[in-house]
Design goal:
heterodimer; A: alpha+beta; Rossmann fold; 2 domains; 10 helices; 34% strand; B: mainly alpha; globular
């Protein structure tokens, strides 16, 4: 059964460093996602594992086998392309049985596998259809079926849902996960959609500019982001700039703009007086109408209200002119009104304090 | 002050023209006129020429020997074209593969070199090949006797040399456009490189393979000048027509059969080609894996390179040897001074380039609206598709047959000066090259860009000036240069339609009159030099520009 190890893997295209000294370990039977903004190198990483591009440095292991010089046809991987890459001159059946045929399986075995995988993706009735006669969702399922039919235990999925509309995408992402789990496969899924990665992955590697920033379960990445970028890219965060006013075992006092002092979580490797960024998730705020003397609170005015269906979203201008986004369940609470004065408070344990990025906050948060 | 006025005037004129272009009547008039010109000048004259003299066909039918000679010549034309196109594809596809899939930086040099026989005027190419294969100065000097004598084999070698680049060019273009993901998908599913190419890449590129075969076939079928230089006793259709210039019967008989048969072949290829199934379901994993090994791939590349160098490149440029000898033998001052035969030479060069320039300019003017009609389906899907097929006809008809029928048609117009007859013949032959490349370029531009321009307030001509033209100007330039070089190297039609002596005709005459090798070599050398300069300019201008 394959686990995948990448040791100091680097890949450059001319002057562009696509993958920069990546170390990763994907466990056997794990559903693992490579998540990052467009152009961060995640697809290159997947193609390196598949053997479609060669690393400039480092080692790639599938199981115990060093595969740097092994051609793609001998790596025993199934690859699902973003555009599906279904062979346009072959019908669904010929596409699906292509792997067994080129691997030299006897015809009966190839046909049995073909029927099994088409049954699995519930497209048995469309086996005569050519790719241009199939919907996006069907093409996607045939592409997965084709990759599975080749018998690989490692499934590589390059933005496999990127071409589909939202409804189909939501349905298919769980279906892909279910199939890989049923078949006990290891899957590596590339996506730029954090919601998709959070929904289906056992673990996620967040990548930016060719480097792996953090690896963890969806909960770990959401609850304990290791950097401002992760806090921004996984879920949503408000970022308030300030200085470390005081440090204690329980946490830190952060002085925000306008001299407002708030209690926050314990920062790592920071000293008193350091410039800091306080990250707070929008759903962790408590908002009370009017001016209240609540602990760890700041006064503000509701500036914008957006109804999002499940949630209602408020943009609140704090009294120090910083702005925060607050998200509340729309059907549970009474809605605030535009221009209404409110008291916004938060629990120190639900905040994260980061050192102010050297490059500047805006640059650090940029996804392109 | 004057400059200011001009500057003010320019936008005013452009504005007025833009305004005019939004009038439906004006737009339709331009399209209708371009269609009428196409039918009146390009398509109908060659067909009507044959119909007018149809009666003279009896002259051939009443002479069994002449008829048999004519039929043999036609059969020889088709046999050579089929054979050459087949080996062109066999040799050209690995060459295109090597150019597009290799990693070496030298491959771009190889890419450029593979164009050389394409742009060397064919008459020059014919003489160069003769020197290399048949004359004692070339390869034969190693053996002491002519290695390949004038005859069918030399004709095959010649046709291979000039049609090989056509296959390489088409297949390089197709390979660059091909979505590599199909092949990568195949590899990740376990297919060896050869299996992936055989079962996925080539079936997807089938249309381009057929197109490259068709173009090589057409090129071989219509070539005259160079063939005459190396044919010896071998007679094919164009040579037969040339032998019987002035006799309406043989001319009409062979032209009609060549036009009908070649049209039939192309229609058949067009209809049956897409239905042609490649054997993709049968796979021999072990054997194909062995054949995909790096040793076999290197051997294949080596053989491809050897074939290109020995059969195409070196023979094509071999004429440079006597050209250099001529320089050192003192012929150069004579040539540059226009002494003796050189006076006629420079006159013929001037005529060739004059005709080339006029034909290029005229075709740009009359071909551009037609390219837009085809690309944008301006007269409806059906009629535009029909026009798309019709503009190809001059490519598939042998140029000598086209010239012959044009000559018959235009001789009814006594007032027609000979130079115009020549220009009309060249217009017909080169028209498809421009319309094809321009319509393809316009088709590549998303309609949304045009629509965006219109919604922002641009008139139709404004959209063309500011969006279509900047995005297609390099295709226009390469189409124009292709027309120009084709016109300059055209021999067959030129020989038939007029007595004017263009450069390729003069070179053919020099070979017939056994002009000294040094003179001939230098004459060919100048033509190659000019063609190189044109290719170089094209490469420099077009390089890296068409990637929007």
């Amino acid at each position: 059964m394959p686990d995948i190890r990448l040791v100091n893997v680097a890949k450059r295209f001319g002057k562009i460093v696509a993958v920069d000294g990546v170390n990763l370990h994907v466990y056997d039977k794990e559903y693992f996602s490579l998540l990052g903004p467009s152009g961060c190198g995640k697809t290159t990483l997947l193609r390196l594992i598949a053997g479609l591009v060669q690393p400039d440095e480092g080692e790639i292991y599938i199981g115990d086998r060093l595969v740097n010089d092994v051609p793609p046809e001998d790596r025993d991987v199934g690859f699902v392309f973003q555009t599906f890459a279904l062979f346009p001159h072959m019908n669904a059946w010929d596409n699906v049985t292509y792997g067994p045929r080129v691997k030299g399986f006897d015809i009966k075995k190839a046909e049995t596998i073909g029927h099994e995988v088409l049954e699995m993706v519930r497209l048995h009735e469309r086996l005569d259809a050519y790719p241009n006669e199939l919907s996006g969702g069907m093409m996607q399922r045939i592409a997965v079926a084709r990759a599975l039919a080749a018998g690989a235990k490692l499934l590589l999925l390059d933005e496999p849902l990127g071409q589909l509309d939202a409804k189909v995408r939501n349905e298919l992402r769980y279906e892909i996960r279910r199939m890989t789990k049923d078949l006990e496969l290891t899957a590596i899924h590339v996506t730029h959609d954090q919601a998709e990665a959070m929904a289906i992955s056992d673990r996620i590697a967040v990548i930016k500019k060719g480097k792996v920033l953090q690896v963890g379960t969806p909960e770990e990445l959401y609850m304990t982001p290791k950097s401002v970028f992760i806090a921004h890219f996984i879920g949503e965060s408000n970022f308030l700039e300030g200085y470390v006013s005081n440090l204690s075992r329980r946490g830190a006092i952060i002085e925000l703009r306008g001299g407002i002092k708030v209690q926050a979580g314990a920062p790592k490797n920071m000293d008193k007086g350091d410039r800091a960024v306080l990250a707070i998730r929008p759903e962790t705020f408590v908002v009370e109408k009017g001016i209240k003397k609540t602990k760890n609170s700041v006064l503000g005015i509701v500036e914008r209200i957006t109804f999002e269906g499940t949630n209602i979203r408020y943009e609140i201008r704090l009294r120090n002119q910083d702005s925060v986004v607050v998200v509340r369940p729309s059907l549970v609470e009474e809605w605030l009104k535009m221009g209404e004065k409110v008291t916004v408070s938060f629990s120190p344990e639900k905040t994260h304090v980061f050192a102010y990025p050297e490059a500047g906050l805006r640059e650090e948060l940029a996804v392109e | 002050m004057q400059a200011e006025r001009t500057n003010l005037l320019k936008p005013k004129i452009a504005k007025a023209l833009d305004k005019l272009s939004s009038k439906t009547a004006i737009k339709n008039t331009i399209y209708i006129v371009s269609i009428i010109i196409f039918f009146a000048l390009i398509l109908f004259p060659p067909i009507l020429g044959i119909i007018i003299k149809w009666g003279s066909i009896e002259d051939v039918l009443n002479q069994p020997e002449l008829m048999s000679e004519a039929l043999n010549a036609i059969a020889a034309s088709f046999a050579v074209a089929f054979f050459v196109s087949f080996i062109d594809v066999v040799a050209g596809v690995p060459m295109a593969w090597m150019i597009t899939r290799g990693n070496s930086k030298w491959l771009s040099v190889l890419d450029t070199l593979s164009d050389i026989p394409f742009i060397v005027p064919t008459a020059t190419l014919g003489y160069s090949l003769f020197l290399f294969w048949g004359d004692l100065g070339g390869l034969s000097s190693l053996f002491g006797v002519p290695f390949v004598s004038r005859g069918w084999l030399l004709v095959v070698l010649l046709h291979f040399a000039f049609s090989f680049p056509v296959v390489v060019r088409v297949m390089v273009g197709a390979s660059l456009d091909y979505k590599l993901e199909y092949e990568q998908a195949s590899r990740t599913l376990g297919a060896a490189p050869l299996t992936a190419a055989r079962t996925v890449t080539f079936p997807i590129l089938k249309h381009s393979l057929i197109a490259s075969f068709t173009l090589a076939f057409a090129r071989s079928l219509s070539e005259t000048g160079a063939t005459m230089m190396v044919a010896g006793a071998f007679v094919n259709g164009p040579i037969f027509i040339n032998k019987h210039i002035g006799e309406a019967g043989p001319l009409v008989f062979v032209s009609a059969i060549l036009i009908v048969l070649s049209s039939l072949v192309f229609v058949t290829i067009r209809l049956l080609g897409p239905r042609l199934k490649m054997p993709v379901r049968k796979v021999w994993p072990k054997a194909e894996r062995k054949l995909s090994s790096s040793t076999i791939a290197s051997s294949r590349n080596g053989i491809t390179l050897l074939v290109f160098l020995v059969i195409v490149l070196v023979p094509s440029l071999f004429v440079a040897v006597p050209a250099f000898e001529a320089i050192f033998a003192g012929v150069l001052p004579e040539a540059l001074g226009g002494v003796g035969v050189w006076g006629d030479y420079w006159q013929s060069i001037s005529l060739s380039y004059f005709v080339g320039i006029i034909v290029t300019l005229l075709n740009v003017v009359i071909g551009l609206p037609m390219a837009i009609i085809i690309a944008r389906r301006k007269i409806g899907n059906g009629p535009s598709a029909v026009l798309d097929v019709l503009v190809n006809i001059p490519i598939i008809v042998p140029s000598v047959a086209l010239g012959a029928s044009l000559a018959i048609f235009w001789e009814n117009f006594a007032f027609m000066p000979e130079i115009w007859l020549l220009i009309f013949a060249h217009l017909s032959i080169t028209y498809p090259y421009f319309v094809r490349s321009m319509s393809a370029a316009v088709e590549r531009i998303s309609m949304e860009l045009e629509e965006a321009g219109r919604t922002l307030g641009a008139k139709p001509l404004g959209v063309f000036r500011t969006i279509i033209f900047p995005l297609t100007k390099y295709s226009m330039l390469s189409g124009a240069i292709m027309m120009f070089t084709r016109s300059v190297s055209e021999t067959g039609a030129t020989l038939v339609v007029s007595n004017l002596v263009t450069a390729p005709v003069l070179l053919v005459n020099w070979v017939k009159n056994e002009v000294p090798t040094s003179t001939l070599g230098l004459g060919c050398g100048f033509l190659i030099l000019f063609s190189f300069i044109i290719l170089l300019v094209l490469r420099l201008v077009v390089k890296g520009r068409e990637t929007y």
